[in-house]
Task: structure prediction
Amino acid sequence: MVSMLGTGGTAAEGDSPERIIDGAERRGQLPPPSPAAGPAEPAFSSSDYERLIVEGGDARGRLVQVELFCGSVQTVATRSVDDPDPLIRALEDEDGRVSGAECRWGPRGEDRREDFFLLLGGEHAETFAGAPIVDDGFVRRRHLVAEVEWIGRSEELSLRTVGVLRGQASR
Result:
């Protein structure tokens, strides 16, 4: 079971840029993306998300451009697994927790938006912190058009679908 610590809730509640950046800077440094990942590919729709899920391990490490609507930052405990993911381990604090945000993948108005957990590393926390807060279906969320390194389903994070924020993207 994963324990949720932190503020949770909507992006407007207690999610100051200073708190986001301070929390992410206490984490480990994120290794650069693999050169084999190549340039980021557009993956803005739910069908792109589903394609990445179907590709499974073959999609791991791929850089994708996405549109996300995210709640506030929360700290999540990781589970101990036999084959830990090096990106997740690099972002853990001394207590085995990572910082991230629950997000909705895809543009507003798309019928099938998917759940996605965005992991935040220190050097990219400012990108997240600077994202505008918008109304998204009666919920206030941070709106990001971002470059994300896809991890996929993570045993360490209780089978959440996850990726790591690598920077801003344009649409």
Q: What stands out?
A: The chain has one domain: 4-30+40-168.
